[in-house]
Design a protein that fits this description.
Oligomer: single chain
CATH class of the largest domain: Alpha Beta
CATH topology of the largest domain: Rossmann fold
Order of helices and strands: HHEHHEHEHEHEHEHHEHHHHHHHHHHHH
Shape: flat
Number of domains: 3
CATH architecture of the largest domain: 3-Layer(aba) Sandwich
Number of helices: 22
């Protein structure tokens, strides 16, 4: 039998086990225990934050056989069947692969059948934003007036793609990205339960790389723990995930802020030659620049970097203005987006470092606006021709040929020479019709193309 992955093995089975979503679990628990649940829920939030897990827990709580205060109990046969994926009254649908109107019509027909065993028939539609417009329209009537024994739970990371007519008929819960201490605590708990030896730096790296998604952090822990020889270390995590050490990103920023652009570019070239993931490295540098900016703005509580790094970043940021840190952070953020499609992975970061060196150390960036006036003023003025040369250049009228006539501008105005009338849309359309008529005389197949 295949070994169960860690994120499935440690999937929450009770509201108390859900991490970082207390504002959601508290409301759902009270609704299930009091019998005042809604007929439709919309769970919105980033991936890996517990949307589908909370939906399954809510389905258990609504059908649990225990006393209301103990739901879900995870002991009755209904709770156990839900945990094992065998409960017939819990229907999970993937909206990405069942997105058409035919699948929704089939769902509408099955909704009319009462539950087989539980009190409620629960439909969980994951990735609901992938449904087509016709499918949403077909679902709308059923969602507005469902049978009393049916509960819909929709989950999506892109709630803005769900039509407003669907959102207005659901109770919406927004799931938040998890913070670093919450992810680290859960990873340490899993390591204790699985007997995985680790160091604190390795757990911190995994938590940062997860980007607020606990499921991603657990999956990465499962990956590195299967490779290591009984010990998950920071070096092992960096080698497998391709992440750059904080010390390398810190040295790069230190060289840049000290005015050593050549040294910073040389370090970057060495990292690229070693096969370091440039996107990860650029993201790590961006994280440190962002941390320096937040520290200068007094928002140190929002900084998600290791504690031992904070003091060194504070020293680096002392001599830098907030406006300069803001431009540096923006440049690095743009470089992260450009790395994926760059011909040379290190090129976007190299350009960002060169631009940052210009405004960090008072060296203005060369621009076209600054180059053109210089070229204009530097051009020497043309020397005035001598009177004799001017007379030689004057054309001499030949016999029988009149010389050039010079008319003063005042006389031109007095002669009343009319300027051409301005073109308007109506006149252009009439001219275009005439062009089409002449083309039709030459070739009848081209005239319809001109009309189109």
């Amino acid at each position: 039998m295949a070994q169960e992955t860690l994120y499935l093995k440690w999937r929450p089975k009770d509201f108390d086990e859900v991490v970082g979503q207390g504002h959601v679990t508290r409301t759902l628990r009270n609704a299930a225990r009091s019998g005042r649940q809604a007929h439709a829920y919309l769970f919105a939030g980033p991936r890996g934050t517990g949307k589908t897990s909370c939906a399954r827990i809510l389905a258990k709580a609504l059908n649990c056989l225990a006393e209301p205060e103990q739901r879900p109990c995870n002991a009755c046969h209904i709770c156990q069947e839900v945990n094992q994926g065998r409960f017939l009254d819990l229907i999970e649908i993937d909206g990405a692969s069942n997105r058409g109107i035919d699948e929704i019509r089939e769902l509408r027909e099955k909704v009319n059948y009462r539950p087989n065993e539980g009190r409620y028939k629960v439909y969980i539609i994951d990735e609901v934003h992938m449904l087509t417009r016709e499918a949403f329209n077909a679902l709308l009537k059923t969602l507005e007036e469902p049978p009393e024994y049916v509960v819909f739970i929709f989950a999506t990371p892109e709630v803005w793609r769900v039509p407003a007519t669907i959102r207005s008929r659901c109770q919406r819960f927004d799931f938040r990205p998890l913070r670093l201490p919450q992810i680290e605590a859960r990873l340490n708990q899993i390591c204790e339960g699985e007997g995985i030896a680790r160091d604190d730096k390795a757990i911190a790296i995994l938590a940062r790389q997860a980007g607020g998604a606990l499921r991603d952090a657990i999956s990465m822990l499962d990956q590195v723990s299967s490779v290591g020889d009984g010990m998950v270390t920071a070096d092992l995590v960096r080698a497998i995930l391709g992440t750059a050490p904080d010390e390398a990103c810190e040295r790069l920023l230190s060289s840049l802020l000290a005015g050593d652009l050549a040294g910073a570019l040389e370090q970057l070239g060495q990292f690229a030659a070693e096969g370091l993931d440039m996107r990860q490295f650029t993201q790590g540098t961006l994280d440190l620049a962002r941390a320096m900016l937040l520290m200068r703005l007094g928002a140190q509580a929002e900084v998600d970097v290791p504690q031992e790094t904070l003091a060194r970043l504070g020293d680096l940021a002392q001599g830098v203005q907030v406006e300069q840190l803001l431009r540096l952070t923006r440049s690095l953020s743009q470089a992260v987006d450009q790395v994926r499609n760059a011909y040379l992975p290190q090129l976007p970061l190299e350009l960002a470092l060169v631009e940052a060196n210009a405004y960090l150390h008072g060296r203005p960036e060369p621009t076209l606006a600054g180059v053109q006036p210089a070229a204009t003023t530097a051009a020497p003025a043309a020397a005035a021709p001598s009177p004799q040369l001017a007379r030689q250049r004057e054309p001499v009228p030949g016999p029988g040929r009149p010389g050039p006539v010079t008319v003063a501008p005042q006389r031109v105005a007095a002669m009343g020479v009319a300027e051409p009338p301005p073109l308007d849309l109506q006149r252009l359309q009439k001219l275009w019709l005439k062009v089409g008529a002449k083309v039709r005389l030459k070739d009848r197949t081209l005239e319809p193309l001109l009309r189109s």
